[in-house]
RNA sequence: GGAGAAUUAGCUCAGCGGGAGAGCACUUCCUUGACGUGGAAGGGGUCGGCGGUUCGAACCCGUCAUUCUUCACCA
């Protein structure tokens, strides 16, 4: 055992702790153990780069839960892993190649994948290092990656399974096309933004007449794909025109006027151009009327030969030129400014093009229905906070089919093969035997398709009888942000129900986003991001973790405010120094030597142990409901106020005495409380608590695997609480008066205490030593029936009056003012209590114990009031 | 247009049916041997407005206001 430095040094404390834990296999789960399982799978970070503060928050919460469960005797498994993140990673590798002046098409698919794996290895290393820095208790022996063989097998199994059930199909639909990434996207990868665009009104001339129909559109360049003009069947303005043709102004092509319910008569001119290949609604209309579906754009967002002279131009350039040309031709009625919502790619931020294309889809109706229905059963997923369950349900009820094919290379290639000559399709776990006659589908699956399987694919599924899967699935709690409920949480739920017949996790704890000090989202473009590693460097992982996990309520966003991390550091420094005091006084005693059974404790000992009980109970209660902010508050108050400000100060008395027995008792209490503190704090601050624990324990075992503290009913002691509270009240009153008369604590004063009854007298007499130490009197008198003296300053506490005779010091005017203020407060209290008790409804309906408390309080206030009043009378004479 | 969240001390936020809390900031005092990254004592809030339920409301319900999220195929 060594002495601690007077200043907490987070870098020194945190160094080497991970190795200490790993050497003991502290975080390794064991399916053969008899302990009940508690499982968390990490939301796999993308291998695109470094972790940000949001990850730090998310993983800290999980670490808190898993460390608590581990200490509480569970076989705790926290499974780490990472996500290949198709589009995002491919974009990164593309960018890296571009720096070398290479395009992925130059090197081909195979070589590109090699480069991608290199990238993955590199960033996986970075991420593991960051996890270590954060102090996460992950079981690395079970680390997984979404492109691992086992997980890929799960992906194929699910794909083939859904296909065989008819829940996956391939078809030509309007999808969201990202012309920059040149891939299809799912609906939720499209971000709608309000954009000020224009509403272009064009003249579509009626064939064989000089009349025209006015057609409005926000995307003029798609007119080359128009195959009809639609009006509402009941719209009397146009019924006579149905069946006639109009001329597309851009190219002079004639198209029919059709009637369809889809058109709203009241909107715009009541005439809609129908472009089936470039608009989802038009696609439906086209299907109903058997219309053709010409595509007029290339995959990169330029116009194709269908656009005539605009062939090869970028869609927006083409739009501009087309409008100018039509204006010159007198075919534009007007151009209105128009604010409308435009879809942008989540990844590339370019405007997404609704585009006709052959893709793979997951049919959502049945899957969604099953998930929704399951939430009405006992087997439901428990959302915390609850309101997110509605978010989930509402989305599930309105979900469209999920486009899962992506025109990328980095990902799970779709297990479908096409026969080179017959065109026949084969979907299966394995390639067809005569592979040379087949070509595999070039596309890969949406990254979220594999992420959706994460809770079971990582645990060995679909291997039947896998020990991990048997023991650890369903997992217990998933922790993630509200921003990926749709992307991930919902998909895990329906895939899990479909393939394992179970929910993937019993609880899902949803947290918010980390924002900057001004409440803005952290983003690269704003440059307001904070690197968690920088914070750890400056304040330590313990401070960062505690800040992140105790400074918001569940589901709320969190602002990153450096001063708060700093104040957390101060808190740790406080803990450090309290520990320093304890260790210096233990004189070689360790927590294993403590035996408090049968000891007679001082009032301070009894009080702090009682407070410890309350703290443990409070923590356990709030932990159940994942209210870590409240847990933090229990810890903070207990440690800083009760333990440091009061108990340690009290403990100095016996520790500085010659009474060896008293010293031993005090050491034991100090050790008991400190041990409990580091245990309770450990999930939040694993590093510093491990450091301290190793200094007060003779065992080599890590605190990380020590047993969680339990409240000891033998330490519940209401009388000690009352007695000690009186001492605290007296001490505070004396300090207060000293401050009033500007008498520094070192200055000795006389203190007379008038005990109101024998019980108080006994208590105070027995604990005189504390009063002497804290109040530093030149004379201390504790008596029953002391009378008020004019020369003394007066304070009243429950059960006693305090008189401080300060010769020549008392400014009568000031004292009258002080006591008058006090009297006013007391009078208000008396009034409040009286009116409450005068209310018969209150006394009749409120719980009896509350009425009783109210009565007792009223008596107490009345007594105090009388004392102060009579003192005031004396002074005013 | 639908749904949700927020509105509490100067700032950032807890609390969510029985007498308003924390951190930072502010005032005064303190170089006492765990800690001046500290200690002691303070000041500061009609808990957004208005109704309602209740013996009792910051907390539950309704409504309005402001701010912020989300979802949605209105051409």
What does this structure look like?
The protein is α/β, with parallel strands linked by helices. The strands form nine sheets. Strands 7, 8, 9, 10, 11, 12 and 13 form a seven-stranded mixed beta sheet that branches. It has a four-stranded antiparallel beta sheet with strand order 6-5-14-16. It starts with 9 loop residues before the first helix and ends with a helix. It binds one RNA strand of 75 nucleotides through strand 8, strand 12, helix 7, helix 10 and strand 25.
Q: Radius of gyration, Cα only, in angstroms?
A: 37 Å
How much of the sequence lies in strands comes to: 15-25%
Helix content: 40-55%
The unreliable regions are none
Label the overall shape: elongated
How many distinct helices? Answer: 27
Structural class: alpha/beta
Termini Cα gap: 65 Å
What is the count of β-strands?
Answer: 29
Major beta sheet summary: 7 strands, mixed
Mean pLDDT: 93
Draw up the topology in text.
Layout: H1 10-14, H2 17-23, E1 37-41, H3 53-71, E2 75-79, E3 81-82, H4 86-99, H5 104-134, E4 144-145, H6 149-164, E5 168-178, E6 183-185, E7 190-206, E8 212-217, E9 228-231, E10 245-247, E11 254-259, E12 271-274, H7 280-288, H8 315-328, E13 332-345, E14 353-362, H9 365-374, E15 382-384, H10 387-397, E16 402-403, E17 405-406, E18 416-419, E19 425-427, E20 438-440, E21 444-445, H11 447-451, H12 454-457, H13 467-472, E22 475-481, H14 485-500, E23 505-511, E24 514-515, H15 532-539, H16 541-550, E25 558-559, H17 562-586, H18 603-624, H19 628-655, H20 660-681, H21 686-696, H22 718-740, E26 749-755, H23 758-766, H24 768-775, E27 777-784, E28 792-797, E29 800-805, H25 812-838, H26 840-845, H27 848-876
Parallel strand pairs: 1-2, 3-4, 9-11, 15-23, 22-23, 24-25, 26-27
Antiparallel strand pairs: 5-6, 5-14, 7-8, 7-10, 7-13, 9-12, 10-11, 14-16, 17-21, 18-19, 18-20, 26-29, 28-29
Helix pairs in contact: 3-16, 4-5, 9-14, 10-14, 15-16, 16-17, 17-19, 17-20, 17-21, 18-19, 18-20, 18-22, 19-20, 20-21, 22-24, 25-27
The chain binds one RNA strand of 75 nucleotides through β8, β12, α7, α10 and β25.
């Amino acid at each position: 055992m060594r002495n601690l430095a007077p200043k907490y040094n987070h870098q020194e404390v945190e160094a080497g702790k991970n190795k200490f834990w790993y050497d003991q296999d502290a975080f390794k789960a064991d399916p053969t153990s008899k302990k009940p399982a508690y499982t968390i799978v990490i939301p796999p970070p993308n291998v695109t780069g470094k972790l940000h503060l949001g990850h730090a928050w998310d993983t800290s919460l999980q670490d808190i839960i898993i460390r608590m469960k581990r200490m509480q005797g569970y076989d705790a498994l926290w499974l780490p892993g990472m996500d290949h993140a198709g589009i995002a990673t491919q974009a990164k590798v593309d960018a890296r190649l571009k720096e070398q002046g290479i395009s992925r098409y130059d090197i081909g698919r195979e070589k590109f994948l090699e480069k991608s794996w290199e990238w993955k290895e590199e960033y996986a290393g970075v991420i593991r290092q960051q996890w270590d820095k954060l102090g996460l208790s992950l079981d690395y022996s079970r680390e997984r990656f979404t492109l691992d063989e086992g997980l890929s097998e799960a992906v194929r199994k699910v794909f083939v399974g859904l296909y065989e059930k008819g829940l996956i199909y391939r078809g030509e639909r309007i999808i969201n096309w990202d012309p920059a990434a040149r891939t299809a996207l799912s609906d939720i990868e499209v971000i709608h933004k309000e954009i000020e665009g224009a509403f272009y009104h064009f003249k579509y001339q009626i064939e064989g007449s000089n009349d025209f129909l006015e057609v409005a559109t926000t995307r003029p360049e798609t007119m080359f794909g128009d195959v009809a003009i639609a009006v509402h069947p009941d719209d009397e303005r146009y019924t006579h025109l149905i069946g006639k043709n109009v001329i597309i102004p851009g190219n002079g092509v004639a198209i029919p006027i059709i009637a369809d319910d889809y058109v709203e008569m009241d909107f715009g001119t009541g005439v809609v151009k129908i472009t089936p290949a470039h608009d989802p609604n038009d696609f439906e209309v086209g299907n109903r009327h058997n219309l053709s579906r010409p595509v007029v754009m290339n995959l990169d967002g330029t116009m194709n030969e269908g656009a005539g002279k605009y062939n090869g131009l970028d869609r927006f350039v083409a739009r501009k030129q087309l409008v100018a040309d039509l204006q010159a031709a007198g075919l534009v009625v007007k151009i209105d400014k128009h604010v409308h919502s435009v879809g942008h790619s989540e990844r590339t931020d370019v405007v997404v093009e609704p585009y006709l294309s052959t893709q793979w889809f997951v049919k959502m109706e049945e899957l969604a229905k099953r998930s929704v229905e399951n939430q009405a059963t006992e087997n439901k997923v428990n959302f915390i906070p609850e309101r997110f369950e509605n978010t989930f349900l509402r989305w599930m009820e309105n979900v469209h089919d999920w486009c899962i094919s992506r025109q990328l290379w980095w990902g799970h290639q779709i297990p479908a093969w096409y026969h080179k000559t017959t065109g026949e399709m084969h979907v299966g776990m394995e390639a067809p035997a005569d592979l040379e006659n087949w070509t595999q589908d070039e596309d890969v699956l949406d990254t979220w398709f594999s992420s959706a399987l994460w809770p079971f694919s990582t645990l060995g599924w679909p291997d039947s009888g896998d020990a991990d899967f048997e023991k650890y699935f369903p997992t217990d709690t998933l922790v993630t942000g509200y921003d990926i409920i749709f992307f991930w949480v919902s998909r895990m739920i329906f895939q899990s129900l479909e393939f394992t017949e179970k929910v993937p996790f019993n609880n899902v704890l949803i947290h918010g986003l980390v924002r900057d000090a001004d409440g803005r989202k952290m983003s690269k473009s704003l440059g307001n991001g904070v690197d968690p590693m920088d914070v750890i460097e400056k304040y330590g992982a313990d401070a960062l973790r505690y800040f992140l996990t105790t400074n918001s309520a569940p589901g709320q966003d969190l602002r990153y405010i450096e001063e708060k991390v700093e104040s957390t550091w101060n808190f740790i420094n406080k803990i450090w120094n309290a520990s320093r005091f304890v260790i210096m006084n233990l004189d070689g005693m360790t927590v294993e030597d403590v035996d408090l059974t049968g000891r007679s404790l001082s009032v301070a000992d009894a009080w702090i142990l009682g407070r410890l009980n309350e703290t443990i109970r409070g923590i356990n209660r709030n932990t159940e409901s994942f209210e870590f902010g409240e847990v933090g508050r229990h810890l903070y108050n207990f440690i800083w106020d009760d333990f440091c400000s009061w108990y340690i100060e009290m403990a100095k008395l016996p520790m500085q005495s010659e009474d060896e027995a008293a010293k031993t008792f005090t050491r034991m209490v100090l050790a008991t409380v400190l041990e409990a503190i580091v245990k309770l704090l450990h999930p939040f601050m694993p590093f510093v608590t491990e450091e301290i624990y190793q200094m007060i324990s003779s065992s080599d075992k890590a605190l990380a695997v020590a047993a969680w503290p339990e409240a000891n009913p033998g330490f519940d002691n209401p009388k000690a609480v009352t007695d000690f509270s009186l001492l605290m009240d007296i001490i505070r009153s004396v300090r207060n008066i000293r401050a009033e008369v500007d008498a520094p604590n070192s200055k000795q004063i006389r203190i007379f205490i008038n005990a109101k009854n024998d019980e108080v007298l006994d208590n105070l007499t027995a604990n005189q030593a504390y009063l002497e130490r804290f109040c530093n009197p030149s004379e201390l008198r504790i008596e029953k029936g002391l009378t008020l003296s004019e020369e003394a300053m007066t304070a009243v506490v429950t059960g006693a009056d305090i008189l401080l005779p300060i010769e020549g010091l008392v400014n009568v005017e000031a004292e009258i003012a002080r006591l008058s203020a006090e009297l006013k407060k007391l009078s208000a209290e008396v009034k409040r209590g009286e009116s409450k008790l005068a209310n018969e409804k209150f006394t009749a309906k409120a719980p009896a114990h509350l009425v009783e408390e109210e009565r007792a309080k009223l008596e107490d206030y009345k007594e105090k009031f009388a004392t102060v009043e009579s003192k005031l009378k004396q002074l005013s004479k």
